[in-house]
Amino acid sequence: MFSFTKSPFWQRYQDIIIIFVISNVLIVSFMLLVYFFFEQLRIHENDPDTNDELLNQSWLIINRMSTVVLLLSLLTTPFAIYFPAVNDRLSLAIRLLAVAENINKFVYAFIALFWYFCESRIDLFRCSDGFNATVFAVNDFVNVYDLTDVAQYCQFLISLSRFLVVSFNGLYFRYTSRWPLAQLIFPYILRVSMQLAIFQFITNAYLYAKLRHFIPAIPYFFTCGLDYATNRNMKLLKKNGRNTSRAENLLMIQMMANSMLIWFNYILAYIVGIMLALYFGLNALFVFDAIVDFNQFLFFHLIASIISALFLRKSKERPQTAVKRLSNTAITIRKPHADSARIGSATAANRTLTYEGK
Asked: For this UniProt entry, which segments traverse the membrane (predicted)?
């Protein structure tokens, strides 16, 4: 009896199929949730709604909560920058991307808070009209070409690199390890290109409201697919008796935690938004927009930076009796303390995966 999972096609392309299925299920789910949310708002726009006073109070409370979260992230993000930078058990490309990810988050939070305090008109932070206008313009630019998205696209490249090093015997990883500095430009190019495409082709305000969150989120969902496939391959390596280093395992935890945050922020949050839209009117949209911003700051600035600081720092390797090396021809056992390459390195000549065993 024919079994698809035992066919040569599945054996060769199973990782690609898994990533494609998971990513597209998440993309379609999010697209339907966004569409259904706005349709419910349109249908129920004349239904009984929260009064303006309650709306203003709710928006003010959520806005202040967002401010507190961003302030806290300014304390945690420097650790998320420092620890990957000094962790020489990670490849150079991954270290640079992890540092760039958190620098983008720090800059975003700093500019957003600067604008908030200028707008608050507090005597201690009183800004001149000219300076306030400049800060507003910078903050508006940073929000339109969202640095938080740029940061998450850095995480997408980390996930792609890790996937390629544990898949296809590391055959294609050498391409991602080249020009690590040039890789840092890609997230900016991708985010700017998406926003320019939105401005160019989407002129309807109602359609723009639907797609302004959807289109930039597409790489987030591919990150989830890559992380699932990488975690699956890591488990297969362990099942086959091939040791992975502690640094690799910690990096895998960081990646999976990031994928969970994406699911919470984009899938679960919009399910809650639809529940609000079923029973409230247009004011619910303003409250929900504030909640979406708060979730993004909480998940991708504060919590994600704490996770990066905890799991991307250099830690002591657990004692191992042997470190196995996977080759396309044989598996050899190395003695403890033998030199091994950093995480993410791959020898193209013999398609070898190496793990650091310091």
From this structure: 16-38, 58-84, 96-117, 185-207, 213-230, 261-282, 294-312
